[in-house]
Amino acid sequence: MDKQTQTEIEAAAYRGLVEHLRKRTDVQNIDLMILAGFCRNCLAKWVKKTAVKKGLDMDYDQAREFVYGMPYEEYKQKHQLESTHEQRDAFKKADKAIIE
């Protein structure tokens, strides 16, 4: 596979992932962190890092809007729930397992 085709496939897969996460607003970021070790905010950080490497002026809020499809504060008001005690405990365990 040539480099251009690989890049196109990777870009399409990323766009598919972001579209899926935009539709699955029922899945909270903490759930993603517990299960996968990353969330929408992590994706935004990776987008920002890549944009800056490419010489673009992008801040974290712009990167989050890029991933969420709307300003982060709007997304939080519409879709983000308060995490439960169980979720926080599971996150602590998952986070500790990644560190160890």
**What is the averaged pLDDT score?**
94
Provide the number of structural domains.
1
Gyration radius, in Å: 15 Å
CATH topology: SMc04008-like fold
Number of strands: 0
Shape annotation: globular
Structural class: mainly alpha
Biggest sheet architecture: none
Per DSSP, what share of the residues sits in E-state strands of 2 or more residues?
under 5%
Helix content: over 70%
Query: Quick one: CATH class?
Result: Mainly Alpha
CATH architectural grouping: Orthogonal Bundle
Number of helices: 6
The CATH superfamily name is SMc04008-like
Task: Outline the structure in words.
The chain is mostly helical. The chain has a single domain, classed as Orthogonal Bundle (SMc04008-like fold). It is built from 6 helices and no strands. It has helices at residues 3-23, 29-36, 40-53, 60-68, 72-79, 85-99. The longest helix has 21 residues, at 3-23. The radius of gyration is 15 Å and the shape is globular.
Provide a brief overview of the structure:
The protein has 100 residues and is an all-alpha fold.
Describe the protein's topology.
Blueprint: H1 3-23, H2 29-36, H3 40-53, H4 60-68, H5 72-79, H6 85-99
Features:
single chain, SMc04008-like fold, 6 helices, 0% strand, globular
